[in-house]
Amino acid sequence: MRKSYFVLGCALLICGSVIFASCIEHNKILGSWKAITPIDMTPELSGASSASFVPAITFEGGKEKSGGDVTFAGSVSVEKRFTHNLTGEILMSAAGESRVEGTWSPDIDDDEDLLIDFDMESLKIKFDRDDITFSGGGYMSLTNEQKDSLVTVETEVLARELRSVLKTELIRFSVIEDVEISKDRNTLGFEIKSPKTDLRFRRMDK
């Protein structure tokens, strides 16, 4: 299946000049790309009032020029509410970074698709203390010692929860379909499943 990502000047344009196809030059996808629109993960993260992920993908070429290494990183933003058993409701806002390594290769069954094999053991979630805030009456009523303990515990809990959610999200990227690249090679588009989602990325390393 092929979508009209941009207007073709001629129906008989030489394959590879606009989108990936059977005669694709895979070096066109090499480099770093950042998603234009965040992915909403709110329904998957327990207690979250909002949770978004802005993925960035770096494709590197292999010696055989038919695949290579891939790095899937991105920024994560979360707001969630929870109730402290002594003081009441607390609002947590956090921004962090994620990173996972893997390999990519062409799909021999469909020349418009790519396969990505992630090493889930390499998945890391990192939060800087300065990018995590707590507020609400339940938090203000805590002692300084209780606040420090809360920050440590809830940051670890959030990282663990996000790791689980991102693992599920990464499975959606194991097959990226209908890969398209703009003529100027600055915009990458493809489709992922479960649910079906069209994503667009802009080149970061111009």
Overall mean pLDDT score? 86
SSE succession = EEEEEEEHHEEE
Helical content band: 10-25%
- Main sheet overview: 8 strands, antiparallel, barrel
Helical stretch count?
A: 2
| N-end to C-end Cα span | 29 Å
Q: In total, how many beta strands? A: 10
Strand residue percentage: 35-45%
> What is the radius of gyration?
21 Å
Q: Which outline best applies?
A: elongated
Question: Could you say which structural class the secondary elements and strand pairing correspond to?
Answer: alpha+beta
* Strand adjacency order, main sheet: 1-3-4-5-6-8-9-10
As residue ranges, the low-confidence spans are 1-24
Could you describe the 3D structure shown?
- With 206 residues, this protein is α+β, with helices and mostly antiparallel strands.
- The protein has 2 helices and 10 strands.
- It has helices spanning 137-140, 144-172, and strands spanning 31-35, 39-40, 48-59, 68-84, 88-106, 114-118, 124-135, 175-181, 187-192, 197-203.
- An 8-stranded antiparallel beta barrel has the order 1-3-4-5-6-8-9-10.
- Strand 3 and strand 4 (68-84) form a beta hairpin.
- The protein is elongated and about 60 Å long.
